[in-house]
């Protein structure tokens, strides 16, 4: 009894995390494009994320004239050994290119849907850098999602939904191409690395569209995302039931239905009987082993 | 608030800062300080068919060498003073760089399914997402769309 009490005491202690033994300053691991790293200091700024509306980190590089998004990889229970030292901070920061037009889209959609507004009047009190970033964008870029109103030097624009949806649809198309070229896994549930190879792309075409539009959708306001999904004809439910049918049913009884499902998933259809049962057990083990793995989509949720 | 990453070029190109031995450990370690990594860890790394094995606090680890994709560079930054006020600008100073490190998993072999490896897919996704789309293509897409909606209208009105 007394032993139990001491144990729970040590667990509850609120300062436990602060008691990190530190004899060295805090360190941070970054992965930055080689060219970018060679061009001098890098300034990380807080901006409103165009998808979530929350504060997020971005880099505006003066030397490469590009914008980067800072992705933070934060798997629980990770730390680094750096030479002869321990680094308790197990996070990684990955810098990837970012289209600053997505900022413009966020603010134009919000402010300029009904009436045109000059760029220098668009403000975000929480993120003072916003106006400066928007003003840096070239007119011919902004005109891809809007129409000009008034004289050229006023730089006033009105949001154009048709242009924007076309622009976003083309972005989605481009993304699907990349996902296919890089053979990035797009199905919702990562089952196992060995399992991925068996997937043939015929009936995964829809998975690609859903996945790509989901990513593009995570960078635009929610309402616009729904309009994009409608534009692209993406329905929520169809394939998820398809995916479910691909997995063996939970109970291991031999039914006719089950034999059919098995024949669909494997390239060489297994002969019915003993071998079939073996296959199912293997798949179950694979699923169990991969229970903790995440789909790439999880990194886009901010 | 901003964070300034100080990247002194002379330091970046110094072979000394480039020759850092790194391990990505699958454990929370509450501490930042010196440790006898070479003596108590590196000495016990065994390699067989490209898979490395070791143990940490009695737990078996499986690992592999992870080479940072050649588009990117691994950098270690050090923050000497963390400001208490959230709005103060922070300064990170370069403490080293690396092109590869040892990636360790607890009780399972490193594979494509590892979250860390999948993180790198974000790079190609981001490149596709930030590619420029020409006004011509947008106009063509709008044209196509217009036709499509007109066609479907005609069909619904026999």
Automatic annotation (TrEMBL), chain A:
GO terms for biological process: RNA catabolic process. GO terms for cellular component: nucleoplasm; ribonuclease H2 complex. It comes from the Eukaryota. Residues 251-263, 274-286 have a biased composition (Basic and acidic residues). InterPro entries: RNase_H2_suB, RNase_H2_suB_wHTH, Rnh202_N. The keyword Nucleus applies. Residues 35-99 form the Rnh202 triple barrel domain. Keywords: Nucleus. Non catalytic subunit of RNase H2, an endonuclease that specifically degrades the RNA of RNA:DNA hybrids. Participates in DNA replication, possibly by mediating the removal of lagging-strand Okazaki fragment RNA primers during DNA replication. Mediates the excision of single ribonucleotides from DNA:RNA duplexes. This is Ribonuclease H2 subunit B. It comes from Hermetia illucens. The lineage of its organism: Eukaryota, Metazoa, Ecdysozoa, Arthropoda, Hexapoda.
From TrEMBL, chain B:
One of its GO terms (cellular component) is ribonuclease H2 complex. Residues 136-158 are annotated as: Disordered. Gene3D superfamilies: 2.40.128.680. Residues 141-158 have a biased composition (Basic and acidic residues). CDD domains: RNase_H2-C. It comes from the Eukaryota. GO terms for biological process: RNA catabolic process. It holds the Pfam family RNase_H2_suC. This is Uncharacterized protein. It comes from Hermetia illucens (Black soldier fly).
């Amino acid at each position: 009894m007394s032993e139990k009490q001491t144990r729970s005491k040590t667990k509850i202690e609120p300062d436990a995390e602060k008691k990190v033994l530190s004899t060295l300053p805090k360190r941070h691991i970054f992965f930055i494009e080689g060219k970018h790293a060679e061009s001098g200091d890098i300034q990380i700024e807080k901006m409103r994320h165009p998808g979530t509306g929350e504060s997020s980190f971005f880099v505006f590089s003066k030397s490469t004239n590009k914008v980067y998004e800072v992705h933070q990889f934060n798997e629980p229970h990770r730390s680094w050994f750096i030479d002869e030292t321990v680094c308790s901070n197990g996070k990684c920061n990955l810098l990837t290119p970012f289209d600053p037009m997505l900022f413009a889209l966020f603010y134009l959609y919000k402010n300029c849907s009904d009436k045109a507004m000059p760029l220098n009047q668009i403000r975000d009190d929480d993120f003072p850098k916003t106006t400066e970033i928007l003003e840096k964008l070239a007119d011919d870029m902004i005109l891809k999602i809007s129409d000009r109103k008034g004289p050229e030097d006023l730089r006033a624009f009105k949001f154009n939904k048709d242009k924007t949806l076309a622009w976003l649809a083309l972005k989605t198309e481009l993304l699907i191409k990349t996902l296919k070229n890089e053979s990035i896994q797009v199905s919702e549930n990562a089952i196992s690395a060995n399992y991925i190879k068996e997937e043939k792309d015929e009936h995964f075409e829809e998975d690609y569209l859903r996945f790509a539009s989901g990513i593009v959708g995570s960078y635009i306001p929610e309402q616009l995302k729904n309009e994009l999904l409608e534009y692209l004809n993406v329905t929520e439910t169809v394939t998820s039931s398809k995916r479910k049918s691909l997995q063996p049913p939970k109970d291991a009884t031999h039914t006719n239905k089950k034999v059919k499902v098995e024949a669909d998933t494997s390239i060489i259809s297994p002969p019915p009987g003993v071998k079939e049962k073996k296959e199912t057990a293997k798949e179950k083990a694979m699923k169990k082993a991969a229970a903790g793995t995440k789909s790439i989509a999880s990194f886009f949720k901010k | 608030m901003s964070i300034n990453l100080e990247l002194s070029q002379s330091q970046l190109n110094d072979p000394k800062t480039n020759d850092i031995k790194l391990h990505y450990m699958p454990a929370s370690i509450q501490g930042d300080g010196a440790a006898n990594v070479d003596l108590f860890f590196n000495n016990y790394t065994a390699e067989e068919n490209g898979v490395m094995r070791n143990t940490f606090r009695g737990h078996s680890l499986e690992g592999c060498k992870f080479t940072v994709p050649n588009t990117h560079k691994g950098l270690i930054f050090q923050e000497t003073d963390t400001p208490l006020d959230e709005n103060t600008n922070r300064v990170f100073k370069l403490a080293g760089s690396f092109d590869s490190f040892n990636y360790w998993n607890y009780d399972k072999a490193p594979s494509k399914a590892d979250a860390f490896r999948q993180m790198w897919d974000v790079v190609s996704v981001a490149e596709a997402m930030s590619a420029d789309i020409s006004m011509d293509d947008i106009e063509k897409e709008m044209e196509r769309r217009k036709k499509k909606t007109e066609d479907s209208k005609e069909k619904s009105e026999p």
